[in-house]
What does this fold into?
Amino acid sequence: MPSDEPVAPKSGDASDLQLADDRPSNKPTNQTGPSLRDFDYFAARPPVVSVIPEDAASILRNQEERRIKTRRNMRWRLGQTFLAAAAVLAWASLMWGHRYWFTYSLRSERPALALGSVTTLRPQEITHNTFVSVDGITGHRGIGQRGTRGLSFVRGDWWFVELLGSQGVFIQVPEDPARFGAFTQVSVSGRVVDPAREACCNAVFEVYQREFRPLDVANLRVIQVGANPGEGRAPYILVL
It folds into this structure.
């Protein structure tokens, strides 16, 4: 019969084995080496290291001065660029407005193209910016104007007189009643201007139409008497 008394386990039985526990133990240990907290990296309050140099105020002031100087230089360069562009535009506008006078003044001296009596001509047949001579009789109507011709610095008094029998041919002459008075036979030479292509006489023709009679401005010609090719080129050379 089996006995109720406890039996001691035999050597090598499974009940003799003990399980290893990998969990950390809360029991205090006898630590002989230094603690990790003794190092700055693991300290609760790491030491504060100052990274601001002693001359920080001077450095910041110098940086601000450099920024101000850079902005000032940029504004100055922009201003110079604007002035240069404005000067170029003004020069281009001046040369464009005087392009016909400019080309006329660069031509060599030559005899005028004789066209004869204006009574046999139509204004459209007289080429703009050419040197011609015509014959005619001055009318009794005219408009005076004080101004310059081309790129000249000398202002003069000019008469605009229509030649009788023409279909719209005017002459621009110096103010001289003895030479260009009413009903005077004249033979003149000068530069041809088409008012539709060169705005030199618009104000004159506006007054003429208001005071005397309507004009077909698109089909008029003005002969600037005494304006010879090759003359008056010095101002244009200076401008260039």
In short: The longest strand covers residues 131-147. The beta strands are 113-117, 131-147, 156-163, 169-174, 185-193, 221-225.
